[in-house]
Amino acid sequence: MQNSDIIWDNVDRHREAFIGLSDRVFDTPETLYGEFRSVAEHRAMLAEQGFRITDDAAGIPTAVLGEAGDEGPVIAILGEFDALPGLSQAPGVAEHQPLEHGGNGHGCGHNLLGSAAMLAATAVKDWLAASGVKARVRYYGCPAEEGGAAKTFMVRDGLFDDVDVAISWHPATYTSVSRATSLANTRIDFTFHGKAAHAAGAPELGRSALDAVELMNVGINYMREHMPDEARVHYAYLDAGGAAPNVVQHKATTICARASMSG
Ligand SMILES: [Zn+2]
Fold it and tell me: Where residue 260 falls among pLDDT bands split at 50, 70, 90?
């Protein structure tokens, strides 16, 4: 039997357990360093499979590592388990059907990403133990992939210094080896503070924070003409200052996310 067949057998043997993990993470969609239930599920599975566990990796409470094997090269398999805001969705339905209006959901499939990455690590772990091959396999439970850049802090903390190869995947509607690269990115939240006033009764007393946010975005749109091709700037309003148009908004917040090949 070829090694790859043995590893696929290992995958099949653990199949139901890891589908269960994926389903449980789907049912508890959490975002941006708040993935406490999801990481607890991942940690429990690492323990069940006999990995040595590092909690609070890089000082991040929702990051976890699991390692097996004693010596030899380090194979890193990277998983993620964060959800996206506003994508609450009933499982097994191919049309928009939120379980909770405005709630989180796993539209990007990270419930699968984390579970199947750990399944791969488990299958390799079992093979290493059975074959006697000297190597270590390490599962990286990485939170906050959607805008939180947790892996950046994990790299900065040296968690990848001894890694020989790092492998990851992402759920899609087809199976292939992807050669796609992505842009480095950084995010800044800008909050503007103005002065509240009745917009009809005393508009001259108000200073609108919402106006400030809009002016900033207009400026960025003019800046786009002068940016290199590879660079991108995205934005979203985190807080438009309220829903009442007859109140001058005293506070408003926008995200500005900048991405470029040069970092
Ligand atoms: Zn994703």
Answer: low
Cα of 113 from ligand 1 centre, angstroms: 8
Q: Are 151 and 170 in contact (CB under 8 A)?
A: no
Using CA atoms, how far residue 118 sits from 17, 75, 181, in Å, is: 11, 12, 23
* Ligand 1: centre distance to CA 164 (Å): 24
CA of 39 relative to ligand 1 center, distance in Å: 17
Give the residue-averaged pLDDT of 33-47. Answer: 98
Which CATH number belongs to the domain containing residue 241 in this structure?
Answer: 3.30.70.360
- Does 120 fall in a domain? yes
Instruction: Read off the tokens for 205.
Output: 């007393």
Half-sphere exposure of 122 (CA within 13 A, CB side): 23
- Report the DSSP beta bridge partners of residue 80: 142
d(CA 84, ligand 1 centre) in Å = 9
Looking at the structure, tell me whether residues 125 and 8 fall in a common domain: yes
251-260: strand order across its sheet: 184-193, 251-260, 232-239
110 and 205 housed in the same domain: no
CA 218 / ligand 1 centre spacing (Å): 30
- pLDDT (tens digit per residue) in 95-111: 999 999 999 999 999 99
Query: Could you tell me whether strands 232-239 and 184-193 are parallel, antiparallel, or unpaired per DSSP bridges?
Result: unpaired
The token duo for 140 is 């990286």
> What distance in Å separates the CA atoms of residue 11 and residue 18, rounded to the nearest whole number?
9
Residues 156 and 199 in one domain: no
- Identify whether 119 is part of a domain: yes
The tally of domains found in the chain comes to: 2
Tell me which residue range forms the domain holding 100: 3-167
In-domain check, residue 176? no
Q: Ligand 1: distance of its center to the CA of 173 in Å?
A: 13
179 assigned to some structural domain: no
